[in-house]
Design brief:
With 129 residues, the chain is of the alpha+beta class. The chain has one domain: 2,3-Dihydroxybiphenyl 1,2-Dioxygenase, domain 1. It has two helices and nine strands; from the N terminus they run βαββββαββββ.
Length: 129
């Protein structure tokens, strides 16, 4: 995968979260006020994530279930593999990550997997390579 784009409700706090939890580095930030959004590109050696925050001039994100006609946050689920699964577990525990369940076995491979959620409740699944 070349990159994934994730819609977020707060670009600044989400960028900090992805840097802290997934060890990504913000390599570019751009504001497009005429188009109604801001964007941050975060990378490491194997992952490239594009975070996008829309404002009222663009496709404003849903703040509550009662609002309609608005673009919801997120991509719902992102998964990737890591070689050093146990180290990732330790890192995420130290960062006080929000886990969605415990460590499980991937249904296809039987290898360990875990799910954390970002500030917009998008699921990030980390699987042992």
């Amino acid at each position: 995968m070349m990159f994934v784009s994730i819609n977020v409700t707060d670009l600044d706090s989400s960028a900090v979260w992805y840097e802290k939890m997934l060890l990504l580095k913000t390599v570019d930030r751009s504001d497009y006020p005429a188009l109604g959004y801001r964007q941050a590109d975060l990378k490491n050696s194997s992952l490239h994530i594009e975070l996008v925050e829309y404002d009222s001039a663009g496709m404003k994100l849903k703040d509550s279930e009662s609002e309609t006609g608005m673009k919801p946050a997120g991509i719902a689920k992102l998964g990737f593999t890591v070689k050093n699964f146990r180290e990732w577990v330790g890192h995420l525990l130290m960062q006080d990550a929000s886990f969605a369940g415990g460590i499980t076995a991937d249904r296809t491979t039987g290898k360990p997997a875990m799910t954390i959620t970002d500030p917009d409740r998008n699921m990030i699944i980390i699987l042992e390579e």
